[in-house]
Amino acid sequence: LKPCWLQPQLANTNWIDNLVQPAAMTSLVSPQQRPLRIAIVGGGFSGCCAAAALSTSFEGGLPKPEITLFDMGGRGVGGRSSHRRVRVSDSAVLPDDEPAAEQVMEFDHGAQFFRARSPSMKRLARHWVRRGWAAEWHGRFGRVSGGVSDNSDDQDFFGCPPPPSEPLYVGVGGMQTICRRIMASDASGVTVRCGVRVARVERLEGAAADGSGGSWRLHGTSGRAALHDTPEQELSQAEKEMSALDDETYDLVLMTDVSSSFGSWHRASAGLYERGCPTAPIAAKVGSRPRVPLFTSIVAFRRGAGAAGAGAPFDAFTVTDSEILWFAARNNSKPSFPEPPSSSSCPEELECWTLVSTAAFAVAEISEMHMQDEAGTFMAQDPAYLNGPGGPSNKLLNEFRRVVGAENAVFDDVFYLQGQRWGSALPQPMGRLNSSRPLVRVMQVDYDPQAGGFVPPPTHDAEVGNAEEKDYDEEQGMPYYHDFVAESAAAAAATTASETAVAAATEFEQDEALGFYYCGDFCSRILERNPGVEAACLSGVAAAAAMAVAGGWTIVDAVSSVRSGPKL
User: Fold this and answer.
1) Which residue from 381, 382, 348 is spatially nearest to 268, judged by alpha carbons?
2) Is 400 exposed, middle or buried (0-12, 13-18, 19+ CB in 10 A)?
3) Is the pTM of this model over 0.90?
4) What is the pLDDT of residue 16?
5) Which helix (DSSP H) or strand (DSSP E) does residue 318 occupy?
6) Alpha-carbon distance 5 to 132, whole Å?
7) Is the pLDDT of residue 192 over 80?
């Protein structure tokens, strides 16, 4: 059995999107005497989908792997699908897992939505919608010109406005909802450790000369020292000290956050270059991909009864020709986002918006306000800079007012304003990799300030995906990740090592001998897939499939023939 989608001539195509048919496999069984121990570093879409894929695909086999997911987030998993719930009375940021008992403002201030273009992503999207975790966003979408020119739709914000046949999806009550529900339901057996930063991965060598047969130990910090916005000067020496995160060692390690590939100066660094760590080649490859930085500003406007103007023309829109503002979204228009009620502290109706900068604006800001001081110390995000009169938040706010009409008094009265820097918001689009277009280098990091490139080119995926789609019965369990992993693992076991390596290089990075893997949209190199949620999710699932085979699970198909993957 050698599926056509892994033949050498197709090795540079999408090796996970062609997994449309249900798996022929019935179980994946480990021959190990003890459970395999797996560490996943990062709780964004990549890490959560990988955790779900690994934990739900082996229900028929014993022993199940022991999986621990480490995430820096103080409020829970989500990564770049970041959400903020702000109390109206005092602007305090509240937990966002449960329904609010107080009057709040709700903002998505990371990922704004996702699209499902490939067959595999459509299957995941249907599952999330049926579970009530995601929903179509039935908003008014469009483009707004800043008054200079009407540029190509290649510069649209991830294809917004979308064509009628391709809906935009959002998390119900916030984009973070999907990752939280994946971990609570699809990956319920996974141990989740939030507010923990993995700062170093240590290789404990085995008997083999190449290091195979060894294991990993993770070191790091927790509490305030793990959070990206804690000023360095506020941390005591004791808080900065690293220690082993637990007494466990791990057979396989999966990194999911590109920021882990930074040097040790960065708060999110996992020390992948430190002390001769054998992870350096993979970290260098992932970290060398140019980054597209962004700033976001979340703002709530008071809408008094006498305010003149019609408001914005759309609920979400791409700004086609601004050097500052790329996208704006009215959070209140998203499914299950509350309309903030009036209160004694704010008797007027509130309208909550998220403003997203252009890459050019973000690169210019980062060039002026570095993430390191002169001594090389990491500089956390400073609210005084972000929200000050001349800071990024007010620049985005002023540009938003300009493009919707300076005379529009609806947006005059600001009740709440907060900015966020996303230094590694997105990878450079595949269509621009290795191009001659100029990059900007800041503190040894390459940034791409160019506009456009985040609308995937036309693809035949839709036709392939609609050829035959299984209508899964939710009452019989959740087979989505099992199908992805079993099909990928079966194909990987049936191919040569060189063929598998070539195919995997389009989805994730790996050193199988070391048991070290890296996934995420910075690793995905499929032209038809734009960076963001879809690339992140499917990269995580593909990496999980490779880890299943590398871990030595034996694949048992429906007619009881047996093929084994390589053993650790």
Assistant:
1) 381
2) buried
3) no
4) 42
5) strand 316-319
6) 33
7) yes
User: What is Dmax (Cα atoms) for the chain?
Assistant: 77
The DSSP output letter for 344 is S
Of 226-235, 237-246, 390-399, least confident by mean pLDDT is 226-235
Strand pairing class (554-557; 562-564): antiparallel
Kind and range of the H or E run holding 129: helix 119-131
Average pLDDT over residues 298-306: 80
Residues 141, 166 contacting (CB under 8 angstroms): no
Closest CA to 392 of 430, 424, 360: 360
Residue type, 223: G
Task: Assign 394 a pLDDT band (cuts: 50, 70, 90).
Answer: very high
SS3 content of the chain, % helix, strand, coil (to 5): 30, 25, 50
Residues contacting 550, CB < 8 A, separation 6+ = 252, 510, 512, 515, 565, 566, 568
Mean confidence (pLDDT) of the chain: 78
Looking at residue 66, the DSSP 8-state letter turns out to be E
Residue 548 in contact with residue 485, Cβ under 8 Å? Answer: yes
User: Comparing C-alpha atoms, which of 64, 10, 67 is closest to residue 38?
Assistant: 67
- Among 161-165, 261-265, 295-299, top mean pLDDT goes to 295-299
- Contact (Cβ atoms closer than 8 angstroms) between residue 253 and residue 201: yes
- CA gap 95, 54 in Å, rounded: 28
- Two structure tokens written together for 32: 């190990």
Per-residue pLDDT at 504: 52
The answer to whether residues 530 and 9 touch, using CB atoms and an 8 Å cutoff, is: no
Terminal alpha carbon distance of the chain: 24
Structure confidence by residue, pLDDT tens digits, 438-495: 899 988 889 999 888 888 666 544 433 343 445 544 444 445 676 666 666 666 555 5
Q: What is the pLDDT of residue 490?
A: 64
Cβ within 8 Å of residue 558, ≥6 positions away: 24, 25, 26
Please state whether beta strands 191-194 and 66-71 pair in parallel, antiparallel, or not at all (unpaired).
Answer: parallel
Check if the beta carbon of residue 186 is closer than 8 Å to that of residue 481.
yes
At 435 the pLDDT is 75
Residue 253, pLDDT > 90, answer yes
Token match 């693809």: residue?
459
Contacts of 127 (CB under 8 A, 6+ apart): 472, 478, 480
**Distance between CA atoms of residues 119 and 241, nearest Å:** 46
Structural element, H or E, at residue 414: strand 414-427
Return the residue matching tokens 């033949």: 7
Tokens 């999207």 label which residue?
125
Q: Are 527 and 545 in contact (CB under 8 A)?
A: no
Contact status, residue 54 vs residue 67, Cβ threshold 8 Å? yes
Number of other CB atoms surrounding residue 62 within 10 Å: 10
Order the strands of the 554-557 sheet from edge to edge.
25-29, 554-557, 562-564
Query: What's residue 553's pLDDT?
Result: 60
Nearest to 192 by CA among 36, 41, 37, 34: 41
CA–CA separation, 414 and 469 (whole Å): 48
d(C-alpha 533, C-alpha 45), whole Å: 7
CA distance 386 to 394: 8
